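Predict the 3D structure for this chain.
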Amino acid sequence: MRKILAKPLIKSLVILLVFLFLISRGLFSSSMPVTHDLGLHAPRLVNYYLAVKQGQIPPMWAPNLNYGFGYPSFIFTYPYPYAVSSTFYALGFSVESSLNLFLISSMFLSGLGVFVLSFLKTKKAFLSLLPAFLYICAPYFLLNIFIRGAIGEVSVLSLLPWVFLLGELTAKKTSRLVSIIIDFLGVLVLLAFILSHQILAAFGLLIAVLRFWRNRRFLLFIALALLVSAFSLLPMLLEKQFVRAGASEEYLLKHDIGGHVSIKNLLFSKWEYSGLVDSSENGRFAKTVGVSQWMVFIVAVGVLLKNKDRKIEDKINIKLFFWILISLFLIFLILPISMPFWRVFKFLEYLQFPWRLLGLLIFSITMILIELVQLRFLERREIKILGLLVVLATFWALIFQAKPAAYTAKDDLDWHHFPLTADSYGEIMPVWFDSNRNLKLDKQLVLRWETGELSDLENNFSEIQWLGSKMSYSVESSQSAEVIQKTAYFPGWEARVNNKQVDVNYKDTEYPGRIIIPIEKGQSKIELEFSNNTWARKVGGEITLLGLVLWMGWVGWKCLEH
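Done. Predicted structure below.
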């Protein structure tokens, strides 16, 4: 046992695990950290869980949000974080503990991913700890966890090292068994990455393609992952016209608070818990790269200039140049000087805030450190100085930054009955839904006679079964009428009256965007269900099925060959 523990790799892994426990210690709590966004992610988690429980596969509709009218959250929101955190919830953990466990697992994934990637490239166990420390202790990484609570961006940062590890592994010769495992897990990692934060992940994938553009196997994995993720990507792209942010660019820009960072703040920003423990503006936080990260970048530029006469065929030198170039381009996009670039390439506006690219920038600088460790240009003294700086930054982060401002504790039922839309400013509200008018009528079921008079007598309705994603009930009417139901309309809702499919009226002038069903005199049995029977969701599902068949076929063929 002593001989095993004496091995540098085992020692390094033990040190890394101890560090990861320490850096995430503030999350080992039954209460949830007070952050900008976790209070929105908690009700989304609950609604994702309810959607699955009510038979939505994949989940698209949040049944309890929007004051119980429902909301199309999961058509336009990244599913990976909720799929993982709702699994913790299904296992018996509370809503708040489930989110904490997701953040903890993301931190461990991040640290281990960078460590393994560095060790694979450098074969230096102890030195591979430095990139892991540098990545996890970057101010932007920690503020996404302890200040912003941005689980989508945390997901991207936790999976990004594994994406590039996959790129390295697919370029190496391995045994057939290992190759089969890589074929299966590789597409799975890329699928999770794409569904972690679709827009930010697109930037990450673009960098990966530029880095491994000659690696056909890696590019095949990306293609398969994109096919499998079509069930989410296609509806998100094609059905955005039905929500406020997608139907009107002006609406998105009106609520976009900007986000370019000045060079001064990029060099250094004060760490602060703005808006979490006081009433100050909650958009202020440390949008900075980090002192140790800047030092690594400066050293790398110096090394490159010092060795500029080396032959262009030097692959290591080219890799270092690649990551320096990527870092410079990301810095450019974050600075205000890039505003004309953003205006020309309109699709970038869906990222909303240029400072979100700080996550990719700290990863790029982490890769620079890995290349520096791999290079033989640095003297031992220079490596020691860089290492000391990273270690000091690590201790600083452990003591002063890796902790929440405060905690909040709510019962799970409070999150189940969260009344709002759980987004920033109602940006994915259906375009035809008028909240002000519909909130005036809070009854679950109401009859409206031809005269316009409303009747909510309980004896009108019976056999009511209401889940939010589907419902059924019987209604007795003495004349032709309309049933006004407390459900927001969105493409995918299907209604049946006495086993006959009918069109719902959602363009009512009095209650716009609400589901209204016409019925005849007498007894009517009404059934509604939120389905995936829209063009975008059906085609997306078929492409996903094709991707799964190709993926499993590829893995199966490799197994038979083995």
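The radius of gyration is 26 Å.
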